[in-house]
Amino acid sequence: MKLILALIKRDLTLSLRQGGGIGTALGFFLSVVVLLPIGIGPDQALLARIAPGALWIALLLSVLLSADRIFQQDYEDGSLDIMTMGPVPFEMVALAKAVAHWLSTSLPLAIAAPLLGFLVNLEPSAILPLALAMMLGSIALSLLAAIGAAVTVGLRRGGLLVSILVLPLYVPVLIFGLSASQPGAAPGLTTASLLILGAIALVSLVVSPLASAAALRSYLK
Amino acid sequence: MQFLANPTRFLKIANAALPTVWAITIVLFAIGLYGALVTAPADYQQGETVRIMYVHVPAAWMALFVYTVMALASALALIFRHPLADVAAKTAAPIGAVFCFLSLATGSLWGKPMWGAWWVWDARLTSMFVLMLLYIGYMAIWAAIEEPHKAAMVARVVALVGFINIPIVKFSVDWWNSLHQPASVFRMGGPTIAGPMLWPLLVMGLAYTFLFLALHLTAMRAEIAARKIRQIQIAEIGDR
Amino acid sequence: MDFSANHAGFVIASYALSFVFLAGLIASTLIRDRRLRHELERLDTQRQKARS
C-alpha cells in the first residue's frame, strides 16, 4: 500500500514538475468551450440548453487528449519493465497510474469545468449538480482512458486509435453524467443517475487495472 | 474446443465440412429469399417496405452474434493460450463489421420511408453504431501492431473490454432514449409477427448464420496459411 | 413483391446493397484463401527441393 502511494506521488510530482499536464488539458478544454458558441451562434437560450452537454463533451475530449501520457514515458524509458518485476502486483501499478492521472488531470478539469460554464451561459443552479456528476464521472473517465493508453502504448501513432477505442467506453459515462446534471430534472432522476455513474466507476475500477496490466504486459515481453 | 485446438485437425475438419456448409448456405438463401420476396405478404401498414426486414434483421442479429463469437474466442485464447482461438477472433471481426454496416445501411434505407429521415437517434441505432466503432477499433489494433503474437494479446483485451461495454451501452442508451425521445417514433417490427412473415425471417437468419460459418472457416484456413508462410519466411532469413 | 409499390426503390436498394457487400466479402475471402494456400504449397515444394 505504501509502495502504491509512493508510485502515485511520484507520478503526481512528475506531472507537476514537467508542466504541460493539467495546463495543456485545461487549455484544450477552454478552446473547445470557446469554439462551440462561435460554431453554433451566440443565442443565449440555445447555449443555456446545451451548456451541460457541451461541457461534458469538452471534458471527455480533454481527458482523452491527455490519455496517452499515462504510460507512455514509463514505457519508453523502461521504468515499466522494472515495475513488472517489483513487489507491487502489476495490476496495482496500472491502477496507481490511472489514479495519478485522475488526480493530476481529470479531477482538476472536473472542478474547473462548471466554473467555466459561464462562457456557455450555464444556469447557476446547474453548477453544483454538474460539478458533482463530473467529479464522480471523471473517476471512470481516467480509468477507461488508462485502458486505451495501455492498449496503444507501443504504437507510434496511438493517439487516434485511443479515441476510437475509448469513445465507445465513454458513451455510458456521458449519458448518465448528463442525466445527473440536468438542472430541471426530478431529484429522483439525478440521484439515480449519480448512483449509476458510481456503479460505472466501480466496474471500471475492477476492469481497468486488469485490462491495462494485461495489455502492457504484452508490449513489455 | 480442446479437440479443435490443433490446427492440423482443424484444417482437416474445415476442409471436409466447407463444401457442405456452402451448399446449405445456398439452399437456405434460395428458400429464404423466395419466402421474403414472393410468399411473404406486404405489411398492411408499411406496405412492401417491410421486406427490408428480411435483410436488415438477420444482419443485425449476426453483428451481435459475431461479436459474441469474437469475445468468446478471445476469452478462450486468454485462458488456454490457443493460437487458433486468436485466429478465430481475428478473422471473425471483418465479417462481423460487414454485417454491422449492412444492418446500419439497410436500417437507414428502411428508416427513410418510415420515419422520413435517413438517421434517427433511436436507442437501437445508437447501440449498433457503438458496436460498429468497437469492430473498427478491434480491427485497427490488429492492423497497427505488426508482430502477430503481440497483436493477438492486445486484441484479446480490446475484444473483452468491448464485450463488457455492450450491455452497459445498451442500458445507458435505453435510459437516454426514454429521456429525450418523443414516444411518437414508429416502432419497427414488434414482437408479434405473423407466420407467413416469420418463417422467411427465421430462414434468412439461418442463412446468414451459415454464411458466416462458411466465411469464417474459409478465413481461418487462409489465416493459418498466412501464418505458416510467415514462419517459413522467417526461418529462411534465419538460414541465410 | 410489387415493384410498382410506394418506396419499392428502398427495398431494391437494401437487397442490392446487401448483395453487393456480401458478394464482395465472399469473393475477397475466397480469393485470399486460394492465394495464400497456393503460396504455401509453392514454398513447401521449394523447400523440399532445396533439401533433397
Mean pLDDT, all residues of chain B: 86
Q: CA-to-CA gap between the ends of chain A?
A: 26 Å
Helix-strand pattern of chain B: HHHHHH
Which regions of chain A are unreliable across 5 or more consecutive residues at pLDDT < 50?
none
Give helix and strand order of chain A, one letter per element, not per position: HHHHHHHHH
Largest interface: B-C, 34 and 28 residues
Indicate the percent of residues in helices of chain A. over 70%
Backbone structural class of chain A: mainly alpha
**What is the CA-CA span between the terminal residues of chain B?**
39 Å
Indicate the proportion of strand residues of chain B. Answer: under 5%
What kind of oligomer do you see? Answer: heterotrimer
> Into which percentage range does the β-strand content of chain A fall?
under 5%
Question: Given the structure, what is the number of helices of chain A?
Answer: 9
Number of strand segments of chain B: 0
Q: For the report, how would you describe the main beta sheet of chain B?
A: none
Number of domains of chain B: 1
What count of structural domains of chain A?
1
> How would you sum up the major sheet of chain A?
none
Total of helices of chain B: 6
Query: What is the global morphology of chain B?
Result: globular
Description:
- The complex is a heterotrimer of chains A (221), B (240) and C (52).
- By secondary structure, chain A is mainly alpha-helical.
- Chain A contains nine helices and no strands.
- Chain A is globular, with a radius of gyration of 18 Å.
- Helices cover 81% and strands 0% of the residues of chain B.
- Chain B has 240 residues and is an all-alpha fold.
- Chain B is built from six helices and no strands.
- Chain B has one domain.
- Chain C has one helix and no strands.
- The model of chain C has no long low-confidence stretch (mean pLDDT 87).
- Chains B and C meet through α2, α3 and α6 of B and α1 of C.
Summed up, what is this model?
The complex is a heterotrimer of chains A (221), B (240) and C (52). Chain A is an all-alpha fold and 221 residues long.
Throw out a few tags for this protein.
heterotrimer, A: 221 residues, mainly alpha, globular, B: 240 residues
Produce the secondary structure layout.
The complex is a heterotrimer of chains A (221), B (240) and C (52).
Chain A: H1 2-18, H2 22-40, H3 44-67, H4 72-76, H5 79-85, H6 90-115, H7 124-151, H8 158-180, H9 187-220
Chain B: H1 7-39, H2 53-80, H3 83-115, H4 123-144, H5 148-180, H6 195-239
Helix pairs in contact in B: 1-6, 2-3, 2-5, 2-6, 3-4, 3-5, 3-6, 4-5
Chain C: H1 8-51
